[in-house]
## 1
Amino acid sequence: MKILLTGSNGLLGQKLVYRLAGNASHRLMATSRGENRLRKTEGYQYRSLDITQAPDWERVVGDFRPDVIIHTAAMTHVDRCHENPAACEEQNVKALELLIAACQPYQTRIVYLSTDFVFDGKAGPYRESDQPYPLSIYGSSKLKGEELLQQSGLPVAILRTILVYGVAEELSRSNIVLWAKGALQKGAPIQVVDDQYRSPTLAEDLAEACVLAAEKKATGVFHVSGPRTFSIFELVEQIADFWKLDKDLLKRVSSETLNQPAKRPPRTGFIIDKARRELGYRPHSFREGLAMVDKQLKAAHGQQV
Ligand SMILES: NC(=O)c1ccc[n+]([C@@H]2O[C@H](COP(=O)([O-])OP(=O)(O)OC[C@H]3O[C@@H](n4cnc5c(N)ncnc54)[C@H](OP(=O)(O)O)[C@@H]3O)[C@@H](O)[C@H]2O)c1
């Protein structure tokens, strides 16, 4: 299978490169904005592709003729989307129109990444059949992307996910595990909300779900997250426990006190039975995920010394 990946410099994108490069059954074309930032360069090709540029899509899709596109690239920072809705619309909605136009002539299959932020968080954990009602610009933009793809007539799998964590190289943004571990190791007190609930997702598990969806030619919506839902406070406590860090540094706050620019859904979390059943998705527990992160951080540290 010829797989075109967008956003290969991002957290999920990097995991997909490591998962697919050199794979005997697949040929991978990784793309992202600008230069390839990964140390690994063998076993796949790389092209620069800005998803907001129609000529980039036409050139890369026309030359490579992928069987499937795994579309991870997006404006993913929820508060930045709130502060700059025009940029969010361009990267998360208009870019989807360009992707669809580039795929129409070849009926290319698409695996699209969406989010728990399509829900209002009043009644999590959610099933695929539950009614979306986004509270933020980011959530609305990802839902509009879903709708455009569903109306396109192309074969599309929509994988919604939640709070992705993991280790990767030179990321443009951090994630909950690295952020909490880093702050607590420095002895910095941190404010953590105790009224938002999420199912944290190991980036490797999500990458595997994308590959399963591509290989099985899945279509429709799938909820793909970690197996359990915790409050963010419980989650950070587990991070502190795992690395034996000082939990007295954690200050429990409400979302109202934290007053983040974009509104967050209070209680999401997913019921992942459909992904287990139809994709064969088997996520790690949060503790197993932390153990994997620990191993990768030690390996990366070993390389730098
Ligand atoms: N992370 C989460 O917690 C989470 C939760 C729910 C859903 N999702 C969805 O999952 C997908 C993957 O997320 P992630 O965590 O891997 O995000 P990420 O680490 O922010 O990666 C996104 C990548 O997209 C690239 N990108 C942004 N604009 C681009 C453009 N115009 N052209 C080409 N590339 C562009 C970014 O490039 P730069 O590195 O150069 O900025 C970045 O490498 C996204 O679609 C996101 O909406 C993520």
## 2
Amino acid sequence: MEKHDAAKASPNVLEFKGVSVQFGGVRAVNNVDLTLARGEFLGLIGPNGAGKTTLLNLISGAMPPTSGEILFNGQSIVGISPDRLCHLGISRTFQNIRLFPKMTVFENVALGLHARPNYSLTDALFCTPRSIRREKQNIERANGLLDLVGLSAYAKKHAGDLSYGLQRRLELVRAMATDPQLLLLDEPAAGMNEDECGNLTKLIRSIHQEFGFGVILIEHHIQVVMELCRESRIYVMNLGEILASGTPMEIQNDTKVINAYLGEKRTTNGRTRRQISRNC
Ligand SMILES: Nc1ncnc2c1ncn2[C@@H]1O[C@H](COP(=O)(O)OP(=O)(O)O)[C@@H](O)[C@H]1O
Ligand SMILES: [Mg+2]
């Protein structure tokens, strides 16, 4: 099914039905059910080792589930390669930055665009007018995206020479270059200070509002998640399972969530909630 036909077919862009992943004796994901409506912004939090990255790996096709069903636009995507899933509209960033440091900022974004080519190999080989026209559009799109995230001034610099915060921004824009319906963000604010987190939060919000794609955001900086999900939902994972889901307020007051983070029974005082804010 092609990307835009598929988009009309199902109200949910993503659905997990009883999904599990077993690594030897470790059940990294255990019988997870999850839905993401079209254009929804979903937060995914949980302690280290909870299974969050594994869940994103399942969606991006990096690994198949041991059991269960994963539907994208109502169609099973189990066994489909990451390249094909990128074509279908799933894009991601990684917990550890994966840029090409010796290539320029512009080239890194252009690579993202070519992950979903908009002209055929034959067009490219024979330099057809179509390929020339599309390539011009691609260059405009890459420049437009760099402008949008404030990286235009760095377009000709090597990606590896950018500051850490700007490299994170570049990863984000490269993932967006494929024009996704679903964007998976694995700890985009990792290693950032408070100011950088604030700037990234504003950027992600404006991008989401402008492009309207669905987002699943894994993030340890809990203020970033609470802010970005203030009108939507957060799922909390622990030991491979979905422990709770709800609004930011519901999550912060959920006894199971507090216990999972702190390993203790204190639940109602403000100090415990503040500790969650710091520890997530
Ligand atoms: N490729 C793998 N092989 C074996 N075990 C893995 C692999 N990937 C993840 N795990 C294990 O699965 C569990 C969940 O890991 P992960 O999804 O990375 O958690 P999180 O992103 O929430 O920190 C951990 O116990 C981790 O050690
Ligand atoms: Mg992880």
